[in-house]
Amino acid sequence: MDDLISKKDKLASSTSKRKERKHYVSTMLSLICEKRSNNCRMRFIEKQSNS
Asked: How far apart are CA 44 and CA 29, in angstroms?
């Protein structure tokens, strides 16, 4: 039983890490686009909502 719980915990921590990484990358991308042009940022947001 304890083994099952630890497996769940490991899975949960890995998913949250993945989410954090995804958020960090998207934030960096939007910042880069912001520096270039607002148009680029708009396109990036559109792509994200589609997936």
From this structure: 8
